[in-house]
Amino acid sequence: MAALRYVEHRPCAALRSHVECLWLVSDARPRPERAPERIVPDGCPELIVHLLDPFSRQIAGRWVPQGRVFLAGTLTRPWLLRAGRRIRTLGIRFRPGEVRPILPVSMIEAADRELPLAASVGRGRAGTLLRGLRAARSEAARFAAAEEWLLERLAASHTRESAARPAVRLLLEARGAARIADVARALGWSRRRLERVFARDLGTSPKLFARIVRLNAVLAGLDARERASAVDMALAAGYFDQAHLLRDFRALAGRTPRAGRERDGELSRHFTQPERLRLLLAGE
Length: 284
Description:
This protein is an alpha+beta fold. The protein is built from twelve helices and ten strands.
């Protein structure tokens, strides 16, 4: 039986266009050694708050402890994480391109990095979130405290809507298979403008984001019975051959399609649940 308890919370209507969900993972039993977790890029930045022992991330072969409160920007490669002895971590999963209406952050600086929350909102506001979550005595109370903090940041923001939203929507609808020039043309934008908007709001290029979307479209279709037909799903998702699919899986997911989600880790398997990815691709 899994020792980790993982719970998701759908945000209130005012936050729903910016935040996919809030989640909380905990383990009542301290354990000295835990299996690593592989986090696969999905285009969704996350605000992470470690209320007990921080996780560590493997960087250049070393396990480096994470900060207490930070934004993990858009990932372009898999991260390998290892939980601490005691786990109580809250995550706020933003939709692709939707951080800046809530946090005044440079997404280019945050891409593939852990950006301390205090660096974007100041120590006082970052401390308010941490204190509110520590004072809460239940899962529901922690989600409520996080939502209240997010609503305050949204009300104070000068960026009401992500400029990248229409382009992100087109790429999600196309499961990442649309040509970038066609996306720009459909919006009446130049390709240069599209590149600038993605750099500012996602911290990555539209072409790389499309690769991430295609990867997750394939992941959304992979279950224990369907894994053997990865070639058919690759073609449906816009890959021109299986070798192309395998290159993206190794580069972005750190594994092959046949390896299966069970190798991703006890926590990260929740992030690659097919139903969750289908909703992400549908913009829900």
